[in-house]
Fold this protein.
Amino acid sequence: MKSTTVSIGGLFSSDNFPASSEPDNAASEHYTRPSDDFILCRDVNGQPTAIYGALIWDFNPYRLSATKLTRIRFDTVFGTATAEDLKLIEESKYIIYCLIYFSGGGRIGRLSASTLSQYWTILRLAIKFCEEQQCKELVGRLTLKQLFSVPVYLAAFISQVKVDGGFLSGVISGLVKVGKKRLGYDVVNPKKFDLKRVRTEQHPVIPTRIYLNVINRASDLLDHIYKGVLVYEDFIACFADGYYGLQHGLQKSHGLGGRSMHRPDMAEAICDHGLEDVFVDLFKCPNKRRLQVVLLRMQQVVKVIIHIYTGMRDQEVLRMPYSCLSKKVLRKPTLDNRGIQRDCSQSINLISTETKFSGYKKRAVWFAPLEVIRAVEVAQAICRGLARLHRIDLNDKLPLFLNPSVVSNAKRKSEIGIAGFSNDKMSKFFAESIIIRADDLQELRQTDPARDFSNSQKFNIGNSWLLTSHQFRRSLAFYGCSSGFISLPTLRSQFKHMTVQMARYYSNNYENLRTVFGYYDDEKGEFHLPNSHFAFEYQMAMPTSVAHQLIADLLFEKEPLFGGTGSYMEKQKQSVKDGAVNIEHLRAETEKRVRNGTLSYRPTLLGGCTKVGRCDSFLLGDFAACLSCEGAIIQTDKLEQGVQDSIDELKLYPLDSGEHQVVKKDLERLMAFKEKFVGKANGDE
């Protein structure tokens, strides 16, 4: 049996299951534990980062987030571990091993590294609970087996320990799926307990006045730091000299020679690079030690701008690479009869990755207005300077938001990591402009009538509004839809949602508040949207982007296309090739259909889908349903890959298993389609 990885199949691989770990269906009650040298995780270079017998397991190579996960440390649970302590540790190791390989959790049938980290938090609390029971004469020290198999013990654990009921339920449900034959005991039914999840409410919409103030303040801060965009790289690179920026007295105390050897202190360094107008107020930098904080603030301004104008998730922004911008001309310039250019349509995209519904780091593209382009240019300039301190070359894998801690001591080898940002510090950027007023609270109630905001102290009048990155995503959806300038299909495309229904959830109750985010006219008491507002860019650029992707991915595909829409696209390809159809006319017609909501496009495992609206088969993972769908586009190479993947997967399951039957049926459908259409197109008999 071939093993799966914790999260990202195909990029990293752990060891195959040892042969002895297969259960004996006749007699054995549980699996044999893997050997101590069994590898659960490797990095991209093939080096083990989690070995079963080790006391530290690091699953960061499998993480999907930009920020690092805490390593699983069995060596810190106890001080000096006794023999009984070690037994609990061994139990927890085996439980984690079973959850990884046999629980089948997660949206795609496997656990993510971050979920596994949360499960370890639960197990660590469980271990400490078991140890603490030795003080009770009538109970004594428990084992994890006793805790998860005796209802009374588990009830006591739930009542005495503060734990997220959702993750505890996940652990117990996972162990139930693992089964008695592997664990050696029956796990209690989690449904018998009141395992309440930490209640999560939808992120609030930022009230209009506060939202406008934040946008204006963020734009002003960007204008301020953009002044130094051409200088930041060289300025930061100077700090490769450990004495650079230090006060002259400190330079002397650190052993530097006479005055002629002195480097510029921070004030002189700022002046030498012409940055006196930049390093003031919020970005004041009186000494070298402060520079790290100031650069982090600049990076956070950039991050806020990206959230405001794109609606990207927190981790999507943090995963952005240095080379994240692409400029594409979607149609040729329009010339009049005198040869003068009258129109030049283009779309500027922001590139990052999204993993919400894929389970791996998938390339995705967001439309980005000019404000975002300027913000990214600032981040790139800072990144280039930090890269020079790290002595590394710029490449596609280098993160845009490099941690600026290296400026403190460039000679000390620092880890190349992502900058860490705080919501509290972000809110301080806007200070008095985000104080909650009575009319803000009234407006907030309109955005979510079913929620009682007065029960939460953070929404009290007079408090500062606590900003979070996801609020910008929710607010963009809400105000975009309330203004009528962003349609739900456009929102779905920009937000990388699975369905229009999800986009509608983000814009919940937008009809209750008929305002737009532009500027407020005091005389008329109304909000107005200026002609230059980026909402117009969204309105036009998103359908253009979808149409361009559809044409680029399919019409220029060399291999023949099949399926409901695929066959039509194949005819269009031939018409363009023969000169019967003009590519510009076809592009304009496609854009029109996308804008009207009669045509959509998203990539699929077998090619693409042009169906508008909900697709139950897509939600359920039934990719073979595309073969008979009118909106499907089947690409030959992806069909071949689907056949091969199904053949490989079929080998993983016993002949009499349900999984084997399902995969076999899908394979038969794929093979039948291939023989009927692809074989016929290739002239096969």
User: Anything to note?
Assistant: The longest helix spans residues 658-681. The first strand starts at residue 39 and ends at 42.
